[in-house]
Design goal:
Number of helices: 0
Radius of gyration: 13 Å
Distance between the termini: 40 Å
Helix content: under 10%
Strand content: over 45%
Oligomer: single chain
Largest sheet: 7 strands, mixed
């Protein structure tokens, strides 16, 4: 069973930055697209960013466009989410996800203080 393990979450002040990482235990990581989603307290899980298997194309939610950057290193079986200019409304548990394979990470908490 493939495992996705996120790291890099934490507490940061508004305007700060964090970089999340998601490492896959699978050997076919480069064959599928990956995404980041988040879930804030009392809200539904929402899409944040996605990247195709080769890394050449990305897509973002309007709420994070221009502030977040998704990338991947297939040699390290890892996908990243660089989060800049963080806002209190970015506070959530962030999950990495492969929709095609149905893989989910356990989530990492990001808290942005005002």
């Amino acid at each position: 069973q493939v495992q996705l393990v996120e790291s890099g979450g934490g507490l940061v002040q508004a305007g700060g930055s964090l970089r999340l990482s998601c490492a896959s235990s699978g050997r076919t990581f480069s064959s599928y697209a990956m995404g980041w989603l988040r879930q804030a307290p009392g809200k539904e899980r929402e899409f944040v960013a996605g990247i195709i298997k080769g890394g050449g194309s990305t897509v973002y939610a309007d709420s994070v466009k221009g502030r977040f950057i998704i990338s991947r290193d297939n040699a390290k079986n890892t996908v990243y989410l660089q989060m800049n200019s963080l806002k209190p409304e970015d506070t959530a548990v962030y999950y990495c996800h492969s929709r095609s394979r149905g893989y989910w990470g356990q989530g990492t908490q990001v808290t942005v203080s005002s």
